[in-house]
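Comment thread on ticket #2218

A.B. wrote:
> Attaching the input chain for the structure job we discussed in standup.
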Amino acid sequence: MNQSYIPPKIWQWQPGNGGKFAQINRPTAGATHTRNLPQGQHPLQLYSMATPNGVKVTILLEELLALGIQDAEYDAWFINILEGEQFSSGFVAINPNSKIPAMVDYSVQPPQRIFESASILFYLAEKYSAFIPQEFHAKTECMNWLFWQMGSAPLLGGGFGHFYAYAPEKIAYPIDRFTMEVKRQLDVLNQHLEQHAYMAGEEYSIADMAIWPWYGALVLGRLYEAAEFLQVQEYPHVLRWAQALDVRPAVQRGRIVNRTWGESFERLRERHSADDLP
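C.D. wrote:
> Ran it. Output below, let me know if you need it in another format.
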């Protein structure tokens, strides 16, 4: 049994406090260094990395392009969050919270910054009138699930994922606590998807694009190597939904944008076809 931790009366930050992200964790906000962000030729400039939160946005952009909406062409710039690039002065200017993804739309004046993944999804869906239901009830249902994801996924990522996969030592209490919660969330999704093809009903929407990179990846065995531990086969309707999205060409393209430095949209399109995407 681990020795009990007794919190001090006043918490003090200890740099390099252990764990995979210790080198970039700190208790203050703002820029740590001066660096301008690059800018490409398209009105939409995306600064991100292919984490689940980043993939949400690239899936939507690729789906918009698949519809033939050429105004959704974008430049994707890799932000290496493990090296602290999200704390540059340029990035902080478009997202003071220093989290990916972040975007600037230069098609409007003044240029519009957009940060937080749900905000970007909503902004783009509204801008191009696509992947968001127009009927009031269905639109509300879409927003219900969009914000469900924003409230629930931190318990999957920062809770379960951190303590199961990244913490410097395995501690039963947080792993058990967050495993219970993640399985409850999967059951919420499973019961809903038993009755519906997609999250907002029968219409594929930004709610699916927000939830799939987290929970779809989880049940498909791509997140934290935890599929067996969580017994994901217990959620057949989530698996059915996850597999249905996984074969969409735009989803496959969206998964690989911003995986490595310099992987712009155009280069990815040239190098990959729907048949050879991972």
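A.B. wrote:
> Thanks. Noting for the ticket: The CA atoms of residues 189 and 238 lie 6 Å apart.
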